Structures are given as C-alpha cells and as structure tokens.
C-alpha cells in the first residue's frame, strides 16, 4: 500500500491516486466514493454496498454538525468538548484537543475507522480501509505499508511492518509538499501509527507542522510526537533524510 497525506480541513477533491498501489494481498478491492470521500477497501469479499451505507451515515453526522456549528469545519485550533454531539464528532473533537489542531484534521482517519469498525461488526475480519492515504487496518497476518513521500528519494523505499498484535491500527500521513490539504510544515511525509485512526490523522498534521524542510527540524517534529499520548510511533521524511520514534518497525522495500 502507499500512504498519502492527512488534512487540516475538508478531505481533498478527486485527483489521481498515485499512491494507491496494492501488492497482492489475497483480498478483494471495493471502491466507495461520496462527495470528497474516496475509499479503497480490501476485504475477503466485495463490501461496497455496506461500506456505502456506513459512509453515508458518518458523513451525515459530520455535515449536519458543520451546518449548526460553523467553526467545526474551519477551525485550525482545538474546540471544546460537546457531550451532546454524535460519537464521531466527539472523537474528532477529542483528537484535535489531544494534539492541538482543529477537529477536521482527523476527518479522513475518522471516516476510515468508522467504516472499518462497521464492517468488522458485520463479520469482516480481514480488512484494510484507505481514505486519501489514511488507513484503518486489521489483519490476521503480518503486513507492510509503504511510505509514499512525493519526490523524496526515500518515497516507496521504506515501509512500516505491522504484526497482528498491533492491529487494529491507524496509519496516517501528512505532507507539506504533496496534495491539496493544509500543512504548516514542509515535510515530504509524516506518518503516524496509533490504535485510534482519528488520533493518528490529527497527530500526523500536528507533527508535520513542525517540519520546516530542514534536517534539524526532523528532531523537533519527533519531540512533538513523543509528547502525544496514545500514538505508538512516527516517521518523518524530508528529502533524503528520515527520522523515526516509538514502537515502529521500518523495513527496506
């Protein structure tokens, strides 16, 4: 698989998914597109019908909340908790608060996780849900996720290996050099792993904001990663330089 970027605001509009390359996995591809949401799902069987229903439900919650809480869709800073909000909204608010960004920084990862957990509830036990490069994954076997980092010579040359005991997991990526989503940094790729895909998505944005394009800023970005509770690891790629922190296994590809 190839990872792409997280986003600070709304999901990106459709573009060529150059990172969306799957190696043989023995799973069946399903594709679900609705407005900005663009999912590639791997499962033992085609799950498009059920996934479409799940996407419609989670998007309805988010879009309805934005209509009545305008700041939710535009804020670049954390917003207060809202105990009366739907679960998906509370998770996005919590992710933003945990890392210091706006709640929409977690939107792609949140949608991927909601769809993934919904499919698990329907009996799917081997599953990868990718949403604009942000991934929810649960597999009964070891697998590797390649890191797409644009023009960096390290792009698609390194991967993150996951073992079954580390799944379900979220693997999310933010970039300041590729894609349409807002990043205040200039890293080619910041990849974060966590049990919560919403948290991984928001954290990737926050950590990426610290990477200014210089090798020295990789360490500064990883210091931020170390202070975020709930994430298991982070990788920062800038040009030919790479740094990593946490419980994360890198492999050459």
Give structural notes.
A hairpin with a 2-residue loop joins β9 and β10. This protein has helices spanning 48-68, 70-74, 87-99, 107-121, 197-208, 215-226; strands at 28-34, 37-43, 127-131, 134-138, 143-146, 158-162, 169-174, 189-194, 231-238, 241-246, 249-252. The chain has 253 residues and is an alpha+beta fold. It has an eight-stranded antiparallel β-sheet with strand order 1-2-3-4-7-8-9-10. The protein has a three-stranded antiparallel β-sheet with strand order 5-6-11, with no helix packed on it. Helix content is 31%, strand content 25%. The protein has one domain: ApbE-like domains (T-fold, Roll), CATH 3.10.520. It starts with 27 loop residues before the first strand and ends with a strand. It is built from six helices and eleven strands.
